[in-house]
Amino acid sequence: MNIHEYQAKQILKEYGVPVLDGYVASTTQEAVEAAKKLKSSVFVVKAQIHAGGRGKGGGVKIAKNFDEVYKYAKEILGMNLVTHQTGTKGKHVNLIYIESGAKIIKEFYFGITLDRFLEKPVIMASAEGGVEIEKLAEETPEKIFKLVIDPLFGLQEFQARNLAYKLGFNNNQVKQFVKFALAVYEAYMQKDANLVEINPLALIEDDKLIALDAKMSFDDNALYRNLDVAKMRDLSEEDSAEIEAAKYSLNYIKLSGNVGCMVNGAGLAMATMDIIKHKGGEPANFLDVGGGASPETVAKGMQIILEDKNVKALFINIFGGIVRCDRIANGIIEATQNINIDVPVIVRLDGTNAEEAAELLKKSGIKQLISAQDLNEGAEKAVEIVKKS
Amino acid sequence: MSILVNRDTKVIVQGFTGKEGSFHAQQCIEYGTNILGGVTPGKGGALHLNKPVFNSVEEAVKATGAELSLIFVPPAFAANSIMEAADAGIRLVVCITEGIPVKDMIMVKQFLKNKQCSLIGPNCPGIITADEAKIGIMPGFVFKKGRIGLISKSGTLTYEAANQIVNAGFGISTAIGIGGDPIIGYSFIDLLELFEKDEQTDAMVMIGEIGGDLEIKAAEYINNNIKKPVVAFIAGQTAPKGKRMGHAGAIIAGSKGTAKEKIDALKKAGVRVADSAAEIGLSLNEIKHILIKK
User: Fold this and answer.
1) Quick check: A267 and B157 CB within 8 A?
2) Cβ neighbours of residue A339 under 8 Å, at least 6 residues apart?
3) Chain B: nearest CA to A83, how far in angstroms?
4) Is the minimum CB–CB distance between A199 and chain B shorter than 8 Å?
5) Which of A31, A66, B67, B129 could pair with B2 in a Cys bridge, judged by C-beta atoms 3.0 to 4.6 Å apart?
6) ipTM over 0.90
7) Is the dihedral of CA A48, B244, B191, A271 positive or negative?
């Protein structure tokens, strides 16, 4: 789960990470009021969306007075912000963060994430902040310092101190950095984050280190024990069809093609998308109906996929294990009675009770249903149909 | 004995009396798995599925001599169950549970370092040695006996692959689902090593997916250490970046963990990579001549 910058700063602040004062606003009036509460002569108006690159997209502005705060708030609130991370459609801005301005002397990068191979948290830091870490890693990997943390002992002071010297801090800054790094690590571990990124970590006037931007994302599987974090979920940032699907324990991700896919199991679902592409088509979605697929979830899955008007054919690919194919077939038949299905549905049911399922589908006499013997035939038929339409 | 498990392997089930545990334990028993009992704290002394229930793994091991534990405990408590099993002297834990927090698994892996205990999973279908023992949730009938070792990150895609292997005229020695989480026990490398040494396995099929770099490490390992032929398939070529594709670990982070980089690495290591999931059986057929010669 992702959260907004202002929320990440709220969490980090609780752990003692230095941030600038700021308030979140959803109207121009709130924005001006927020600025008035801040003891500052310069303000930064920042769009709050779950994507990076906001500044380049015009979602971050520096205001020198309350009138400018109003002006920029008006401009940014409600805008469709397009960044390299939002896709071409962009994201609608519902919230802005009004923060005190500061004079930036130098920008650093600081991040913590999981090293999946070492199975330990790793800190990455660089004196070249403000740019994307991926770009930095590609172009000048030698400028990124990596520090692997032993999860049993946590980040040790000496490790943070040594890293600070590598980053070129003076003695005063080193002290601040050690405190900062320990605090961020604490927040990362305690809140079950899978990523914390402070980019930039800024050196500002009076020799102060500040988390100027902050990004955090969390392990969904641990939200049950981080209820404060779970409350920060912003559903407006997520695809409404994906949210609807999740209510039925369906894992749905919308894509841009026209062959709808409904599959049991995540690996097989990905492989089904891949084979559609391999045969010359484009998958419209990822949909895993899960291990507990029932007639109800199958019907719901079909409905969600068919709400996407790009879909010109639906490929149902089920390998029945514990899930019995005859139950799935009943679900498909039931769905055709309850929802309007105006595209061909290619059905491949294999595994447990596949023969009974084939019989059921045949008997049903539903004309939209086209049966396929295996994965290959199913994918070929689906792509063929789409190409003809 | 193929690898890791056979019909004599003594198994207990943690989370034995729960809905999932009961259902699948019954299925495993019907397959012929040597399940000797189970553990549900608070229900010790009872009989369930005609097998004894114990309060702890320690008691269960003492009473039954169990060497393997199959776990169906809910995600919030599953990490603790793995550690309990390891502490009680279990040599192999198979954890089916999906949804264990990553932080818990980080700690589990640290804990296991000091124990003589290996782990399969979590978030996996388990392990099956055809016609001998099924320790997991896979449909046993798909896995017909043969001489191909199967290692996979996925569930149903494993069944699909096994089905194709059988339809192509081969069969399975042992199949292992290693799980789709970011942190798991046995990886491709560990199992490739075991299959390489196994006299009942002639070739290996590995099914990977986007996310992490286990497949890339496996490619390096195959290049240097594996003489038996390996066929692979990697799922997720069409997966968008930054989206978690069902499995917690199936995510392309930045530009890392793509299907393409994994496929390229495997091909470079001499692995026959199937172009689509429908061609896993076919790919095996293409290397048939090597298998027959052996």
Assistant:
1) yes
2) A299, A302, A303, A306
3) 15
4) no
5) B129
6) yes
7) negative
